[in-house]
Amino acid sequence: MRAGARPILLTDGLFSHDGEVAPLDRYLEVLPPAGSVLVDDAHGAGVLGKSGRGTAEYLGVSGERLIQTITLSKAFGVFGGAVLGHAHCGRG
Fold it and tell me: How crowded is the C-beta side of 80, counted as CA atoms within 13 Å?
């Protein structure tokens, strides 16, 4: 990997075909410190976690290196979506 590279791993949070939850904690362990995980949490947001915040909350993973995309049309029943992340995510 190039010096100064900031890799991004892309994954679903909750896989709709089998209900498997992505091991975000494991992904963050193997990524370099400058790496981030982009989580498509369309099926996890509103369903997983104590307050429905999705896969990261369900697994107890810090959001500092996560970018979470959600749709509002599944669990929330309205149109739209959002891209969520920590203010420092992706910055070197």
Answer: 4
Write the secondary structure of the chain as one string of H (helix), E (strand) and C (coil): CCCCCCCEEEEECECCCCCCECCHHHHHHHCCCCCEEEEECCCCCCCCCCCCCCHHHHHCCCHHHEEEEEECCCCCCCCCEEEEECCCCCCC
Contact 40, 8 (CB under 8 A): no
**pLDDT per residue as tens digits for the range 51-69:** 999 999 999 998 889 999 9
pTM, full prediction? 0.83
Residue found by looking up tokens 């909750």 in the block: 14
User: pLDDT tens digit string along 33-47?
Assistant: 899 999 999 999 999
Please give the structure tokens belonging to residue 8. Answer: 């991004």
